[in-house]
Amino acid sequence: MTREHIRSYYRFYGARHSILQVGYLVDFEVEGENGPFLPRMRSLSHLGFSWLYDRSRLMVWHNFVQKFEPHLRDTETLEPFYFDLLLEAAKKWHRQNPYRIVVESYLKLLRFEGRLHMPDFCYICEKPLDDDVALMQAFRPAHPRCIDAPALPKSLLVHTFETAKPLLLDDRLVMSLYETVVKGF
């Protein structure tokens, strides 16, 4: 993924070429882009972050970044928003709780795409929601009894959705939202 495109490139993996990991920020040159074959990546440089050596943070990062591939599948050009969202998250990954960053980034993504549903009506039965709300994939609100999911306080969700920041949520609620995010975009 670049700032404005999603491209496929060929890279030979041999004794002198390390394997690229999902979610790494790299700088590279492209060779043979207008040729008949898949273009190649050359002069590859890894632009690392200090948190890459923290296995737990790295695993959360990989899980988050992997969700973008199916979400952006069949897309060749994209808004700089997606690249900037990931870069912003990576820059603060070492200072903040990564689960909170994932939830915050996902809320920004849903808002950008116009898919953030305020918890007013149940997505399943379309009746008004009470004080407790459950969330489906893409943070679609529902009654806890309609989807058999844990109940979350509606007032905190409304504030979180409006601000796109999980500041008022305790770690248990953040983990609940994170588990919803990893189900897929």
Tell me what you see in this structure.
The chain has 185 residues and is α+β, with helices and mostly antiparallel strands. It has a domain at 56-181: de novo design (two linked rop proteins) (Up-down Bundle). The protein is built from seven helices and five strands. The chain has helices at 55-66, 68-71, 80-92, 98-113, 144-147, 154-163, 171-181, and strands at residues 26-31, 40-46, 132-135, 141-142, 152-153. Strands 4-3-5 form a three-stranded antiparallel sheet. It has a two-stranded antiparallel sheet with strand order 1-2.
Strand order of the largest sheet: 4-3-5
CATH domain fold name of the domain at 56-181:
de novo design (two linked rop proteins)
Helix content: 25-40%
Task: For the record, give the distance between the C-alpha atoms at the N and C termini, rounded to a whole number.
Answer: 17 Å
Q: Can you tell me the CATH superfamily of the domain at 56-181?
A: Recombination protein O, C-terminal domain
Number of strands: 5
Structural class estimated from helices and strands: alpha+beta
Q: Please state the overall shape, judged from the principal axes of the Cα atoms.
A: elongated
SS strand fraction: 5-15%
Order of helices and strands: EEHHHHEEHEHH
Rounded to an integer in angstroms, the radius of gyration calculated over CA atoms is 19 Å
CATH class of the domain at 56-181: Mainly Alpha
What integer is the average pLDDT?
Answer: 86
- Unreliable stretches: none
Main sheet overview = 3 strands, antiparallel
Under the CATH scheme, the architecture of the domain at 56-181 is Up-down Bundle
How many DSSP helices? 7
